[in-house]
Design brief:
The chain is mainly beta. It has helices at 171-183, 204-208, 253-258; strands spanning 8-12, 21-25, 31-34, 40-44, 52-53, 66-72, 83-89, 95-99, 110-116, 122-131, 139-148, 154-159, 194-199, 219-223, 228-232, 239-243, 265-266, 274-278, 289-293, 312-317, 322-327, 346-349, 355-359, 364-368, 374-379, 414-416, 433-434. A six-stranded antiparallel β-sheet has the order 22-23-24-25-1-27, with no helix packed on it.
Length: 440
């Protein structure tokens, strides 16, 4: 029996939504820019992990340049090992910059995140197959960061395996980590599965106290499998601030459901989180951390999760470590399990205070108001076998499966302002849509 789902835009309130374009890579490995009515305005035959239209302010005023993965690797392990070159294309598709052949080992192995920095360099999240002494004498999928200059030189490097002692693992945590690595040292997604790395940028904490660890150059990073969000001091490489990996026993999933409406409150158990980043200056909530808390299985040892699975978007004040805003399905008057993605996904704050959410496991994008009302919703119609490689080749590429399966999964979407691309606003007026209910 086929699984049938409405696709395209299922709801759109132009008066309450923040209007712009949305960029994402489908599981068919094609990256598309859609408008608020779901019309594809531009597409590129490359995946991005994630794809990103580049802010013209960082790009010499050029409009519509995009960062994607340009060529797949040939490492049979796949997963985070797979990418050979990453690069930047112009709006018309010419290659502006490409890097990977000159990387150590001849492949970029870029995965999960990248950023064009103000100095013109690129911060790349990469895989580093190597021996990590704290985990044994075999090669494992370590991960780290390269800062790469425009001419391809690595100007700065950071390796996660050098900082395990700073992650706060308990004795039981170390045991679980080492046992996991011993069982599967060649795990294609890595023993930490770092899924996000973003510079802090200008922020109120540093402005109020120049000695704050939230220096604009420092890097906020997410260790998905360890339930850790941490801050890397760019100068020393040390982890100087951290959320997780452990929380009080009374802050587990059941506690979250009972107290979901109470904010502010201390941060409770996160699990399998994605894309923590400091909300940029000029946006509502600036200086706070926005994170998609998947509530997916993760942790060393595994965090206890509730019976009624449901993901959350959390806004956290880094000074108090309190949740100051959150979104769950219950905020839209729905059961918790109707909003759930145990892996992938992200959230992005918008200028009008709304938040764009990627419920990635199901390929659903939606925009929600601060009060929890969904004012735009889109279900991708594009399916494939995952975001890496050619979708026509039926090989297992979806995380967590061992056979070829078709999926509409989206890793991460980006809200794109109209003035970042040569198109400007769409030529046609927005059309309200409500397809949430249909006749039997």
């Amino acid at each position: 029996m086929a699984f049938v789902r409405l696709t395209g835009v299922t709801y759109y309130d132009p008066e309450r939504a923040h209007n712009g374009y949305v960029l994402y890579t489908g599981s068919d490995s094609i990256t598309r820019l859609i408008d608020m009515n779901g019309t594809v305005q531009r597409e590129w035959p490359f995946p991005g992990v994630p794809p990103r239209i580049i802010d013209p302010a960082l790009n010499g005023g050029r409009l519509g340049d995009i960062g994607v993965q340009l060529s797949p690797g040939d490492d049979p392990r796949g997963g985070i090992y797979a990418n050979r070159t990453v690069g930047q294309l112009s709006w018309s598709g010419e290659t502006v910059w490409e890097w990977g052949d000159q990387a150590p080992g001849g492949a970029a192995r870029q995965n999960h995140d990248w950023e064009l920095l103000e100095n013109g360099n690129r911060l790349l999240l990469v895989t580093l197959p190597r021996v990590v002494p704290a985990l044994g004498d075999h090669v494992v999928g370590d991960q780290g960061l390269y800062e790469v200059t425009p001419d391809g030189r690595i100007a700065w490097e950071w390796r996660a395996g050098d900082h395990l002692e700073e992650m706060g693992f308990s004795e039981d945590g170390w045991k679980a980590l080492r046992e996991t690595v011993s069982r599967d040292p060649d795990d294609p997604w890595g023993y930490l599965e770092i899924n996000s790395a973003k510079t802090v940028g200008a922020n109120r904490l540093h402005r109020e106290d120049p000695a704050s660890v939230f220096h604009p150059d420092n890097i906020l990073i997410s260790f998905r499998k360890a339930n850790i969000v941490a801050l890397i001091d760019k100068a020393s490489g040390a982890l100087v601030w951290r959320l997780g990996p452990y929380f009080a026993a009374e802050s587990g999933a059941q506690h979250q459901r009972i107290n979901a409406h109470k904010v502010p409150r201390p941060l409770d158990q996160i699990s399998g989180q994605h894309n923590p980043h400091v909300i940029a200056e000029g946006l509502p909530g600036a200086g706070n951390i926005l994170v998609f808390d998947n509530q997916g299985g993760a942790g060393y040892p595994p965090a206890a999760l509730g019976i009624y699975a449901g993901s959350r978007v959390l806004e956290i004040d880094p000074a108090t470590r309190e949740i100051v805003w959150q979104y769950t399905a219950e905020d839209s008057g729905l059961p918790s399990w109707t909003f759930f993605s145990s892996f992938v996904s992200n959230a992005q704050r918008l200028p009008n205070g709304n938040t764009l959410v990627t419920e990635g496991m199901f390929g659903r994008l939606f925009q929600v108001t601060p009060d929890g009302e969904v004012v735009w919703e889109y279900q991708t119609p594009y399916e494939g076998y995952g975001v890496a490689g050619e979708p026509e080749v039926p090989e297992p590429r979806v995380p967590g499966v061992d056979r070829a399966v078709r999926t509409s999964m989206i890793y991460r979407a980006q809200a794109v302002p109209f003035d970042w691309v040569p198109l400007g606003p769409p030529p046609t007026a927005p059309v309200p849509v409500d397809r949430r209910t249909t006749a039997p």
